[in-house]
């Protein structure tokens, strides 16, 4: 049986305009990321024992993150490992699992187009990349176990993106229905969007917290992914390198999102592979190091090596010209 709210067919169009208004159907205050992930606010009840462990961890004989004036724990007043623990707890939620439903052949045929379209839509609406990645994760969870006709995919995708925006963004950034209507060149009523949102949230069991690979990769960056003793092509790193590393992480996260082979890989493993490939693309002499292993806390680093090798191979095949440049004199993300 066909699932999803009854609706008229929507024309499949590419987004053309960039919106600026705020609001939206079923509008509610966006949940701050730290609060949503159970972070302890400054002055909260983080135990002295936990904070002592943080200080012991920072005092170990490890290289310090480059350019970091204070640790993430000091900057936030919390034990940041609690955030990562929560990320790892929810990363298996709404993930594709072999043997537990499957995507239709039709969806797999158009998957890259859907991912690219929703990514472009998020950019047009000025939403954070983590919001778009969350919306795509919602959409694929629904499509994994439910038959939705192709002529309804677009509305399903917009409903998922809207839910993600309400959860991930500040309330004033959430797009309006008029903005979504502008994307598909057809009016979307409040009732219609609400029906699809309720349908999606019921399928998600109203559990909206997600930890995508990009969320976790950015956590790794915040903990420090460039180090004082790092070298690029035999030279010490300089102040622009962390900025370029951030851009490469976003780039490789988008690349991994497009490829179906990463659907069933744990986000924490994909995130580590994203950081490893980003460091390699920039020309770091060591693409992975023990400081990163301690942060990532992967049960099996063999998974990291296999996943990063796959991601790197995809990068090599798609951007052969950049590889030739990077091996001689890496410049930056702009070269892509």
TrEMBL record:
It holds the Pfam family Cyclin_C. Keywords: Cell cycle, Cell division, Cyclin. One of its GO terms (molecular function) is protein kinase regulator activity. Gene3D superfamilies: Cyclin-like. One of its GO terms (biological process) is cell division. Belongs to the cyclin family. This is Cyclin N-terminal domain-containing protein.
């Amino acid at each position: 049986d066909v699932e999803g709210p009854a609706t008229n067919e929507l024309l499949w169009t590419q987004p053309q305009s960039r919106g600026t208004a705020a609001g939206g159907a079923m509008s509610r205050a966006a949940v701050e990321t730290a609060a949503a992930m159970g972070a302890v606010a400054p002055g909260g009840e983080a135990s002295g024992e936990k904070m002592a462990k943080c200080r012991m961890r920072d005092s170990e004989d490890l290289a310090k993150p480059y350019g970091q004036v204070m640790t993430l724990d000091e900057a936030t007043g919390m034990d940041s490992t609690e955030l990562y623990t929560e990320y790892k707890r929810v990363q298996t939620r709404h993930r594709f699992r072999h043997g537990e439903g499957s995507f239709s052949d039709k969806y797999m045929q158009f998957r890259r187009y859907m991912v690219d379209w929703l990514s472009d839509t998020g950019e047009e609406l000025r939403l954070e990349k983590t919001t778009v990645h969350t919306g795509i994760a919602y959409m694929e969870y629904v499509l994994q176990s439910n038959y939705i006709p192709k002529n309804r995919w677009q509305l399903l995708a917009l409903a998922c993106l809207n839910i993600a925006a309400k959860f991930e963004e500040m309330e004033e950034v959430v797009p309006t229905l008029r903005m979504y209507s502008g994307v598909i060149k057809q009016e979307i009523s409040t009732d219609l969007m609400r029906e699809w949102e309720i349908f999606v949230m019921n399928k998600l069991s109203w559990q909206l917290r997600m930890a995508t690979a990009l969320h976790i990769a950015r956590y790794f960056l915040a903990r420090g992914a460039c180090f004082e003793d790092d070298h690029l092509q035999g030279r010490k790193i300089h102040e622009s390198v962390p900025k370029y590393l951030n851009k490469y992480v976003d780039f490789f996260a988008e690349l991994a999102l497009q490829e179906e082979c990463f659907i069933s890989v744990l986000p924490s493993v994909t995130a580590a592979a994203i950081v490893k490939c980003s460091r390699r693309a920039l020309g770091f002499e060591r693409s992975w190091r023990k400081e990163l292993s301690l942060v990532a806390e992967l049960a099996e680093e063999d998974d990291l090596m296999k996943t990063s090798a796959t991601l790197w191979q995809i990068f090599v095949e798609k951007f052969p010209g950049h590889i030739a440049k990077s091996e001689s004199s890496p410049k930056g993300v702009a070269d892509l």
